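User: I'll paste a sequence; please echo it back and then give the predicted structure.

Assistant: Echoing your sequence first, then the prediction.
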Amino acid sequence: MTFDTQDDVREYYKNGELRYLTLCCSRHGKTESNSKNMLKPKPTAGLGCKAKVNVVRGKEGKFHISTAILDHNHTLSPHKSQLFRYNKRLDFHVKRRLQLNDRAGIRVNKNFNSFVVAVDGHEKLTFREKECRNYLEKTRRLKLGSGDVEIVREYFMKNAI
């Protein structure tokens, strides 16, 4: 693609319509460490894997695969795919049950274990105990306590002038 001006590029980028998409292997980067401290290396997970799928949206609005490179340069572990960030998600019902059990005083590990028992095993869940803990911690932080509403109102009244 070519553009006449920088503004044309920006307009194309922010027009809100997805036209191209590339999905690549999580091991596509380099294996170098970018840490300056030798005692705390931060190696990347990249192995230079070239596996990817390029997708283009056609004029009719449907997506078409334009390029597909499916050869990985490393071994695959399909049983570990549930551990990828993309696959970790809490749906509405799980979130609601976590909140209710938390209000009832049920500890997070017991709360999580009830989900494991309900689906007959960890491998069938789309989340781990850590996601449950993070979600509950976030909702607790955002919850207003008694008197908090008044403090927030006073803050805005003071700063509105």
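The longest strand covers residues 63-69. Residues 77-161 form one domain.
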